[in-house]
Amino acid sequence: MRKALRDVADRLYERRLSQQITADRLPGHVGILIDGNRRWAKSAGYSNPNEGHRAGGAKVDTFLRWCDDMKIERVTVFMLSDDNLRRPPAQVASLNTVVEGVVAGLADPSNHWELTLIGALDVLPADMAARLKEHAAATVGRTGGVSVNIAVGYGGQREIADAVRSAIGDLISSGMTPDAVIESFDADLISRHIYTADQPNVDLIIRTSGEQRLSGFLLWQSTYAEMYFCDCYWPDFRKIDFLRALRSYTQRDRRFGR
Fold first, then answer.
1. What is the pLDDT of residue 225?
2. d(CA 168, CA 181)
3. Which of 30, 25, 23, 27 has its CA nearest to residue 148?
């Protein structure tokens, strides 16, 4: 009975929050750091932190449906950083299993999300990277829902280094001299070689778990992004929390440095 009453109250509050959101000021691109899974597992009494990763993975599908409801155009989900791969092998193996399961589920034909993998897939086990690419390839051309970037094996500094390396390589292969390369090198050139070169920059970044830092997430793309930090762990993140983040965003004055 108590749960039923709470569910009714939550739905009423969700409706109220939705009415406070200015539809034409919604972010086009939302980035989400799904943080706090291991701490959630500990707080929930689990001795195995992998239970937190599994619960967090299951929440991604739900979150994307909320994004569909709010007509968000693109979402980037930070699933696995290159730093995460430095954890003990057993933890990394568990994380990889969860990530692969999430991507496979999102790519299921019953869903309408187009998936794009961003990150250094070469740092992943080769068989895992191949399967992730197959899942993403199966979604090409899907419409009717939010476009989804899955950041896996991702690091913001690594992305910028890769972009610089790629840009220099292109200039050299075009026949430019080293002096000419240096002379022509600028920020726009790097922007054309980042993982999301053909996409708009992120407008709103949400991080759960109470931590207030980017941890290398979309460093180049977040120059003028608005930040929203939520105290709850990712598995406990509710639609109410998401709507509060959107409400906060629509109430801000974005000046883009002007």
1. 97
2. 7
3. 30
**Given the DSSP bridges, would you call strands 115-118 and 147-154 parallel, antiparallel or unpaired?**
parallel
pTM: 0.95
Between helix 50-69 and helix 239-250 the angle, nearest 10°, is: 50
Q: What structural domains does the chain harbor?
A: 32-250 (3.40.1180.10)
Of 37, 50, 84, 149, which residue is the catalytic one? Answer: 84
7 belongs to the catalytic site: no
Q: How many percent of the chain have pLDDT more than 70? A: 99
Is-catalytic flag, 68?
no
For the cut 70, the answer to whether the pLDDT of residue 110 exceeds it is: yes
